[in-house]
Design goal:
5-stranded mixed beta sheet; 4-stranded antiparallel beta sheet; elongated; about 425 residues; disordered N terminus
Length: about 425
């Protein structure tokens, strides 16, 4: 006589065999989790977006019930064989945790890590905003806010954030209370006002705003009471006619402070960085490879530190300058050095470079600002560095976004994939 048997062991969590004249049947509980993989983004990556679409695959013999990414339920059109989920990102490092469950409740996780941070494209100026606990960084036609503790960068004003005229060939930035002043080098040149609460932009002074001599090409800006001082190497006719110009912070009116014919002493050649000390301005002249002192009352100019004034290693391409007590710190782009210059004698010494001070190397120091017992260095390749004012040691406050090791790209124009390698 033939008969059959049905054995159910899942309730007991056991494997049971039942023999009959035909053969044996074995039923086991499903304890195998689904296979899950992330296909995008790569395991370590970076983006400047505030959200990312994560994609991947999953499979299970008994079917995949769900896939979640950081708690967000993934969408699918083929039972999770392929899935995707849009996940919000916070500034900084974000862990992406993917969990797949099958119909029996078994689960498996996969993970990736992505850095959400505004990229740096062409850092040209930096100023500290102590009340906001941030630094304002001028970077490739936009102003970024950099947290002074975490180093996280966010956009404060650009073509898509804030209203008003766009930045164009922006070169320098200064703080004026609850607003920033940004130099559009020109032509046409302009000084823009940026509202630090909204990112809105307006024109303080240009060919249509403010009276006085039309602006030529502008380089650097500093606030001096109820006026701003800007350096200029070309006049409005694009002729070499370097000068120091005062801008009224209310009206935008322009007056010359120092140039050939206003004040005595050696003429400016390529005036760039500017720092103020009461009735005196210190102007870095790149072409002269010098720091010049300017009397703000008379416009008189003198050479404080160059090949003929002061002792010590010489400048090559000096640019940014900031005052620290009785000395000036001067960034030299080509030498990759921060100089310390004595404001009395003009003597120069190397304060921080590859062999002076520890920490990441200076690559393209293009901006300087003080922040308590440290200086912030805006570096086009190294991000925002913190410079210890006692030792010259360097540390990274806000790094450039980098993925992978090895030499960085310079100007990549094409890509090809061969055997899974780009």
């Amino acid at each position: 006589m033939k008969y059959s048997a049905l054995c159910v062991a899942a309730i007991l969590g056991l494997a049971v065999s039942c023999n009959d004249p035909v053969g044996s049947v074995f039923l086991s509980p499903d304890v195998v989790p689904p296979a899950v993989a992330i296909t995008f983004p790569p395991p370590t990556s970076a983006t400047d977006a505030e959200a990312i679409t994560v994609t991947g695959t999953a499979s299970d013999a008994n079917g995949v019930a769900e896939v979640r990414v950081n708690g967000v339920l993934a969408a699918t059109s083929d039972a999770f064989a392929n899935w995707q989920a849009s996940v919000p990102l916070l500034p900084g490092t974000n862990a992406l945790a993917v969990t797949a469950k099958d119909t029996r409740g078994n689960a498996l996780a996969a993970a990736a890590e992505i850095e959400s941070q505004q990229f740096l494209f062409g850092l040209s100026g930096i100023v500290t905003d102590p009340l906001g606990q941030r630094a304002l960084v001028l970077d490739s036609e936009r102003v970024l806010s950099v947290d002074l503790v975490s180093g996280v960068r966010t956009v404060l004003s650009d073509a898509s954030l804030g209203t008003g005229p766009n930045f164009a060939s922006s070169f320098s930035i200064a703080l004026d209370g609850n607003r920033a002043l940004v130099v559009n080098r020109g032509f046409p040149a302009a000084v823009l006002v940026v509202d630090l609460a909204t990112g809105d932009r307006s024109i303080l002074s240009d060919v249509s705003h403010g009276g006085g001599q039309p602006l030529g090409a502008l380089l650097a800006i500093a606030v001096d009471g109820n006026r701003a001082l800007v350096t200029s190497d070309l006049d409005s006719q694009a002729q070499l006619n370097s000068s120091l110009i005062a801008l009224d912070l209310t009206t935008g009116d322009r007056t010359f402070v120092s140039k050939v014919g206003i004040g005595s002493g050696p003429a400016f050649s390529c005036p760039e960085g500017i720092a103020l000390d009461g009735a005196r301005a210190y102007v870095v002249d790149r072409c002269r490879r010098a720091v010049m002192a300017v009397d703000l009352t008379t416009g008189d100019r003198s050479l404080l530190s160059d090949q003929d004034n002061g002792f010590g290693p010489l400048f090559d391409q000096p640019g940014a300058i900031v005052l620290d007590g009785g000395r000036a710190l001067v960034a030299d782009v080509s030498l990759r050095v921060i100089f310390a210059v004595d404001l009395t004698s003009g003597d120069r010494e190397i304060f921080s470079d590859a062999t002076t001070g520890t920490g990441p190397a200076l690559a393209h120091p293009s901006g300087l600002s003080l922040d308590g017992n440290r200086a912030l260095v805006g570096d086009g390749d190294s991000g925002v560095l913190a410079l210890d004012l006692a030792s010259g040691d360097r540390s990274v406050l806000s790094p450039p976004v980098a993925v992978g090791t090895g030499s960085g790209f310079q100007s990549p124009t094409a890509v090809a994939v061969v055997d899974g390698h780009a």
